[in-house]
Amino acid sequence: MASDMETEVQAIDRSLLDCSAEEVAVKWLQATDLPKEVYLHLAYYIPKIYSRGPNPAPQREDMLAQHILLGPMEWYLCGEDPAFGFPKLEQANKPSHLCGRVFKVGEPTYSCRDCAVDPTCVLCMECFLGSIHREHRYRMTTSGGGGFCDCGDTEAWKEGPYCQKHELSSAETAEEEDPLMHLSEDMIARAYNIFAIMFQYAVDILTWEKENELPPGLETLEKSDTYYCMLFNDEVHTYEQVIYTLQKAVNCTQKEAIGFATTVDRDGRRSVRYGDFQYCDQAKSVIVRNTSRQTKPLKVQVMHSSIVAHQSFGLKLLTWLGNIIGYSDGLRRILCQVGLQEGPDGENSSLVDKLMLSDSKLWKGARSVYHQLFMSSLLMDLKYKKLFAIRFARNYRQLQRDFMEDDHERAVSVTALSVQLFTVPTLARMLITEENLMTTIIKTFMDHLRHRDIQGRFQFERYTALQAFKFRRVQSLILDLKYVLITKPTDWSNDLRQKFLEGFDAFLELLKCMQGMDPITRQVGQHIEMEPEWEAAFTLQMKLTHVISMMQDWCALDEKVLIEAYKKCLTVLMQCHSGFTDGEQPIVLSICGHSVETIRYCVSQEKVSIHLPVSRLLAGLHVLLSKSEVAYKFPELLPLSELSPPLLIEHPLRCLVLCAQVHAGMWRRNGFSLVNQIYYYHNVKCRREMFDKDIIMLQTGLSMMDPNHFLMIMLSRFDLYQIFSTPDYGKRFNTENTNKVLLYLVIIFNGEKNRFSPGMGQVNATDEIKREIIHQLSIRPMAHSELVKALPENENKETGMESVIEAVACFKKPGLTGRGLYELKPECTKDFNLYFYHFSRAEQSKAEEAQRKLKRQNREDTALPPPVLPPLSPLFASLINILQSDVMLCIMGTILQWAVEHNGYAWSESMLQRVLHLIGMALQEEKQHLENLNEENVVTFTFTQKISKPGEAPSNSPSILAMLETLQNAPHLEVHKDMIRWILKTFNAIKKLRENSSTSPVPETEGNIIEEGSRDKDKAERKRKAEIARLRREKIMAQMSEMQRHFIDENKELFQQTLEELATSTSRALDNSPTVSDTKLTALGPKQTRVTEQRQVVTCILCQEEQEVKVDSRAMVLAAFVQRSTVLSKNRNKVIQDPEKYDPLFMHPELSCGTHTGSCGHIMHAHCWQRYFDAVQAKEQRRQQRLRVHTSYDVENGEFLCPLCECLSNTVIPLLPPPRGLFNRLDFSDQPNLAQWMRTISQQIKALYILREEESANNSCGSNSEKMDELQLPKGFRPDFQPKNLYSESIKEMLTTFGTAIYKVGLKVHPNEEDLRVPIMCWGSCAYTIQTIEQILTDENKPLFGNLPCRQDDCLTSLTRFAAAHWTVSSLSAVQGHFCRLLASLVPNEKNENLPCILDIDMFHLLVSLVLSFPAIYCQDFSGVSLGTGDLHIFHLVTMAHIVQILLTSSTEENGMDQENPNSEEEAAALTLYKFLCQRTGSALKEMSSGWHLWRSIKAGIMPFLRCSALFFHYLNGVPVPSEIQVTGASQFEHLCSYLSLPNNLICLFQENSKIMNTLVESWCSNNEVNRYLEGKRQAISYARESNKLIDLPDDYSCLINQASNFLCPKSGGDKSRAPTLCLVCGTMLCSQSYCCQTELEGEDVGACTAHTYACGSGVGIFLRVRECQVLFLAGKTKGCFYAPPYLDDYGETDQGLRRGNPLHLCKERFKKIQKLWQQHSITEEIGHAQEANQTLVGIDWQHL
Ligand SMILES: [Zn+2]
Ligand SMILES: [Zn+2]
Ligand SMILES: [Zn+2]
Ligand SMILES: [Zn+2]
Ligand SMILES: [Zn+2]
Ligand SMILES: [Zn+2]
Ligand SMILES: [Zn+2]
C-alpha cells in the first residue's frame, strides 16, 4: 500500500512538471471569464501538490507550487518571462524612502532618545549604523518579532529621519508622486485582475470554516477519503500536557510528540494524524476527552485534506503577494486598492476588513502571514495607511471584543497593529477628529469593565479567574490610548478641541468609576479573615498614570481646552461628592479665638478610599491654571467662586490621615493589602498622580481659606484637635500622628511645584528633577540605574536625568567589580531638605545621618537648616501665611513648652525637630522677603515679631523665642543644639535687617553675633559638658563590649585571612629564602645544591594543634580540589571513549584532557579531616532526605567545603617532607656518563623483564630456569630487594586516598586503589598542574618564581612531593613496568613496541613520569650511583628529544631579516643538528640555511618546557631559586639553563653524547609516523604551543545580538533559537534551554549547553547568554551560576536581562578577569561560592540549559 502510494506520487510529480507556466498564462490572457479559469486551474492542481501525506514536504511543495501555480501568475502579471519582467519593474520603480524592514525575533532594534518622537520609533541595525543617531543617546532592545524599521518616516523622528541609504532614494522621489505612473496601462489592468482574484481566493480559503467542503468553484469531481486530524494551539494548556496527550491519542513517541507540540506552538496548528475520516476522528475524541477535565479542551478539527491543501497554498499566496509588491511601489498600491475596495455587501466587506474581523478565528501561522502582508503593503503606502487606519478605527470596538474572547497573546492579534497606526501623529490626530477615536477607546474599555458597586464604582473584589484574565487583556486598551495621546498637538482646530473634550468627558466618566473605589474600614477586634483584592485597582491606576499626566499636558497647551476641562472636572467632582455632608452633624472648632464649622468625621471609624483620581486631576489642572496664567487672564471664565475649599481638601486629607495612621500601626488588623496600597501610594510609579496631587490639593485649599481654619480642620481629622485646643489635655496621645501632621505641614508649605524660580519663570521640570536627584544622592552615592529607578519616568520612559545630572553630581568610574557611581557635588548640599516630601522614613533617617556625618567631616556645625526656597507663584502666594497664623504659633508654642518640661508629656525629639524646621522655614522666608524688599510692597510677614511676643493671659506662656533660648542649654537636647543655635543666629540677622531697612543701611555683621550669655552661664555650661562627656564614655564602653561579642561573627572573613596567613607562613619559610648563598644554584643532578632540611611545623585549622611534618608522624593534609581540565587543550574534539581501557601513560602534546589539582592551602590533621568529612556526609544525607534540597557540593562524589574558607574541595593532599632524601643513598663512586648510565639501565631493565617472564612462567607451569642462567645481573643490582616503606601508616593511607581521588576524577571511573594506572594519573596531575601555572605566569608576563600566592605554592609543593612518594604505596613491579615503557619511547628496546612516536608525546609529562617512577628501579640498585645522576640523565635525554621534536615541527617559513649576531656557536651547532636531521629523514625536512632562525625557534620552543622543569625540580628537590629568575629579565634563558644544570648551548648535549645520540636520533626520525608527518599526511603540534584564550568578543554588544538573531536552531530546521548561547571557550553558538536541542548524556536528557561542556570543557563551561547579556558558568550537570557579563554601559553598569537598553561595550579588564578564572581552574569554585551565597541558584535545573 505504502509503496503504491509513493510511486503514484512520483508519477504525478512527473506529469505535474510537464505543465508549462507560459502556456497557462497565455490561456488566461485570452480567457473571457478569468476567475473561473484560474479557479479551475487551482482546483485541479492544488490537491495534487499539497497535503499528500502525514507530514508536509515543504521543499517539494514549494518547488511544485512555484512551477505550476505561481509561475503562471507571474507570467500573466508580467506579460512576459518574469525572469525579465521583474527586473524591469524593479528598475522602473522609484523605491519608497521607507525602510520598513520587518523585525525577526531577537533582532536588535535601536531608538534614539534624543530624536525619536516616541519610544516605539525604532531603526534596524543597518539603518541605525548609517544614521546620525549613532552619535546620540540611544537605546538598544531586542525585538519580540513583528514591528518594522521606521527609517524614512518623517513623522517618527524629530531629526535625521533618513539613514544614508534611504536618504539617497528619498532625494530622487518627489513627495506626493503617484507610484502608478511608472507602470503601463496594460500592466495595471493585469495586476488588478490577478491580484483581485488571488487575494479574494486567499481570504476566502483562510477564513473558510467548513471542515469537509470546499468553497464554490474549487470542488473536484472525485473526493478521496483522506483527512487530517488538526491540532490547534491555545494559551491554556502547557507543553507538557500537550505532549502527554498526544502520546496517548496518536500513539507516537515522545520525540514525535515534542515535534508536534513545538510546531503547534510556533505555527498555531499541526496535523497529528493522516488517514480516513474515522481514523482521524478517533484521535480527535481521545484528545478532547483527555484535555477537557480541568479546562476547556484543546481545539481539534478533522479536516478534509483538500481544504488543508488549499489553505497551505493560501498562505503561500499571501507571502508571494508580499514579495511581488516588493518589486514595485505601483504594484503595492494596486494591492492596497484591491484590499480596501468595498465588496458587494457594503460596509466592512473589503478583503482587509474580512481578514481583520476573522482574526481571532484564524490560527497563529495564518495571522502572522497576513499581518506581515499588511505591514509590507498597507503600512508602507502613505495614502492607504490612512485609509487602513480609518478601517481599523471603525472596527476597533469589534476587534477588541474579538481579542477579549480569543485566548492568544496580543502579539499575534491584529489589535497589536494599533502601535503602527496610533503613534503616527497625523494619523492619531485625524482619527481623533474624524473617527472620535479617543472616545471610542475609552468607551470600549469601559464596556469590558462591567462590575460596579451601587455607587457605580468599579468593583474588582469578586472577580472570577476569567474576569481577571479579561481584565489583563483589556489593559492593552490603555496602551492604545497612550499611543494616541503621546504626541501633543501644536495647533488646535475647533474640531480637535471638541473631540478632545468629548474624549475628556469619557475619561472623566472612567475616573468617576474609580473615585472612591475599594473603600476600607478600620478593622477593630479581629484581624481580617481574607486579604481584600487591591491589586486590580492599583494596576488600573498605575497603567492610567501616564494617560492622566498626558491629558493634563494636552490641556496645558490650549487655554480654551484648559478652561473647559477644568469646569468639566469640577462638575464631576461635585457629582462624586454630592451628599458629602448629608446627615453629618456640623461641629464647631475653635483655637486662639478663631473658630470654624466642619463636620464630624473620623478616619479610623468610617470608610475611606485611597483612590481619588478626579480630585487629583482637578488638582493637576488647578496648577496648570496658575502655570499658564489662565487664572489671571480669564478669571471670569473660571468657576473659582464655586469652589468650596473645605470640600476640596476633605478627601485628600483623609487619605493622608490614613497613611499616618497606618504608619502609626493603627490599622494592623487590616493586613498586608493596606500596607501595600500605602506603599504604592507613595511609590515612584504612582505618586505623581496620587500622593503629589493630594498635597497640591491641600495647598490649593489652603491658599483659598483662612490658614487658622485649615489648621483646625487638619488637627481635627488627625484626632489632635483636643490636644492643642485644651492645653492640659491628656498626656497619652499618638506622637506619631503629631509627627505626621508636622511633616505634612512642612511639605505643604514647601509648595514644591508651585514656586517660581528667580529669573526662570516657574520652577520647571528641570529644577524638579534636580531636587529629586540631590535628595537621592544625599542618602548615598548611587549608580545610574538606581537613580533611574528612584525617579518617575514619563510616557516616553525618560526621567530627564541626563540633562541635569552633570550639574549636581560627579561620576566615579567602577573598578573591576561593582559599578560606576554618582556622588553629590559638595555645593549642592545646601539645597538639602531634611523633610523632602518623597523621602520614606528610612530614607530620611539615612540621609540625615549621611549629611550630619559630612558636616562633621568638614568640621561644620551639624544643623541641617531648611534650604532657601524660590518664591511662590501668585495663585499660591497666600500659603506662606500659615506659618505665622495664630494656630500654627500655638502648635509650635505648645510643643516647645513640652520640650522645656520634657518629663511628663508624650513628647518626642522628632516632634521638636520638625517644629524647629518649621521655625527655620519661616525665618528663611522672612529673611528673603526683607532682602528682596522694594519700596512698593510692605512686609506683611512678621514671624520674628510674633515669636518674640509672650503668650497672652490666661496662660501667660513665655514667647517662642524665650523657650528656644532655654532649650539651647537643655542637656537632653544635645543633638538639636546646633539647629537651635542656627535659628537664634538667623533670628538676630533678621532683626538687624529689619533695623537696617528702617534706618540707614549698615554693613552686614552676620557671623559675629554674640549670643546672650554671661560668664556664669559659661561655667555651668562647661560643667554640664563634662558630665555629658562622662556619660557618653560610659555608654560607649558598654556598647564596645557588646560589639566585641558580635565582632567575630561579623568579621569572619577578616579572621580567616589572618588564620590563612598563619597557616601558610610556616610552610613559606622553606622557599625563596636561600639558605645557601646563591652564587650558583643547581636544582638537580649530582651537582645539586645541598639544602639543609628545615623543620616544618604546621597548625591544624580544625583542632588548632601544632604538628611537625615528619615521615613517621600523623599525616597532615591540605584540602584540595581535583578536576578534569581542557584549558590547555589543542583539540577539543578528543574525548576518552572507554575510560576503563584507556591507557594514560603517554600524554599527547595536544593536552586534550588533563587532571588539575588545586588547593585553598588550608591544613588539617588527616584524622581531623576524616572526622569532619564523615560528619558533613552524615548531615547532608539526612538533610537531603528530609528536605530534598541540593547543596552547592555533591557529597556523594566526595565533595565538601573547606572548613575554614568554604572553598569547594573533593579530596586532600598529604603534606610530606622532601621525599627524595629518603631514597638517595650516598654516592662514593664516579658517576657514569649518559652512555654508561643508559647501558646500565638497559641491562637492569632487561634483567627485570627476564625475571618477570620467569615469574609468570613459574606461575603457569613448571620451572624454566634456562633463562635465569642467561641472566647476568648488572653489578649491584638486586631485583629481589624489597624496599621498606618508611612512612607512617596514616601517611600511607593518605597517599592512597589522594592517589585514588586523582584516578577517579581524572579518568571518570569508579575508585580502585589497586588499579595500575593510579600512579600514572598522579604523575600526570603533577605535570599538568605545573603546566597550567607556567602558562598563566607567561600570559601575565610574570617571572617564574616569587609571584605565586601562598596557596598555589603550598599546593605545588605538596602535589610534587606526593607524586614523588606515591610509588611507595603502589605495586613496585607495576611502577617499574611503567618506567620501562616510558623510557622505551626514547630508548627503544625489543620488548616494547607500538609506543607513540616522539611527535605524539608531551615531553614534560614524560619527564615528570620518568623522574618520579625512576626510584622504583633505583631502590634496587646498590652500585653507588646517585639518584641525582639518574634524574640528570633522564632530564638531558628528554630535553634532547624535545629539541628534535621542535626542529621537526618548527614552522619552516624562513624570514629574510637575518641575525644580529651571525654564526654564533649556538647557531652553527643548531644548523649542524638540523642538517643531521635532514639527512636522517631522507631529506623530507625542508632545507634551512639560517642557523639564527633555527636557534631562535629552539629557544622559543623549549622555553615553556624549561620553565616547567625548573618549577618541577624546585618543588621536588627544594633548591632555592636564584634571584635572577624571580624577576623578568632578558637573560632568563641562561639562568634557567644554569639552574637546571644544562649548557647554555643546548646543542652541546648532542655533541657531548654524539655516539649514543646519533643512534637515538636516527631511531626517532625513522619512525613511520614521523615520515607521514613530513610527507604532509598528518598533523603535529608545533612549539611553543600558543596559549589558549577565550574567544574574541566584539566591542559593541549589538554585534552579538545581531549574530544571535541570525542563528538558527540546528535541530528544528530553520527555526529561530529562543536562547542563543555562545560558548566563550570555542565560540560555538548553541540553542540552549529548549526541548529541540536536548540530547541524552549518560542516560539523562540535558540541554545543549550541558552537552557541549562535556566535549568542550570536560564538564566545565563558560557561556554568554546573548539575549540575557549574562555569563553562565556550568560544572557538571548540577552546578551552575550566572556571572556578571564583561559588557558595561557608559555609566559603568552591566545590564543583565537587557532591560535598560543602554549601549553596551566590552570591558576588556572584566573579560580578562573571567578568562583568568578559567585559566586558573576557578570556575567550579566560583560556582560553589555563588551557590553558597544564593541558595536559589541551587534549585535551578542547570542541566536543561
Ligand atoms: Zn531599516
Ligand atoms: Zn534606513
Ligand atoms: Zn538622534
Ligand atoms: Zn587537628
Ligand atoms: Zn580553605
Ligand atoms: Zn565550546
Ligand atoms: Zn534548538
From TrEMBL:
Keywords, alphabetical: Acetylation, Chromosome, Coiled coil, Isopeptide bond, Metal-binding, Nucleus, Phosphoprotein, Transferase, Ubl conjugation, Ubl conjugation pathway, Zinc, Zinc-finger
CDD domains noted in UniProt: RING-H2_UBR2, UBR-box_UBR2
Domain (UBR-type): residue spans on this chain: 97-168
SUPFAM superfamilies: ClpS-like, Winged helix' DNA-binding domain
Sequence segments annotated as region (Disordered): 997-1022
EC number: 2.3.2.27
A molecular-function term among this protein's GO annotations: zinc ion binding
GO cellular component: chromosome; cytoplasm; nucleus; ubiquitin ligase complex
Location of the protein in the cell: Chromosome; Nucleus
Pathway: Protein modification; protein ubiquitination
Biased amino acid composition, Basic and acidic residues: 1012-1022
Zinc finger (UBR-type): 97-168
Catalytic activity: S-ubiquitinyl-[E2 ubiquitin-conjugating enzyme]-L-cysteine + [acceptor protein]-L-lysine = [E2 ubiquitin-conjugating enzyme]-L-cysteine + N(6)-ubiquitinyl-[acceptor protein]-L-lysine
GO biological processes: protein ubiquitination; ubiquitin-dependent protein catabolic process via the N-end rule pathway
Family of this protein: Belongs to the E3 ubiquitin-protein ligase UBR1-like family.
Physiological role: Ubiquitin ligase protein which is a component of the N-end rule pathway. Recognizes and binds to proteins bearing specific N-terminal residues that are destabilizing according to the N-end rule, leading to their ubiquitination and subsequent degradation.
UniProt name for this protein: E3 ubiquitin-protein ligase
Organism (species): Pelusios castaneus (West African mud turtle)
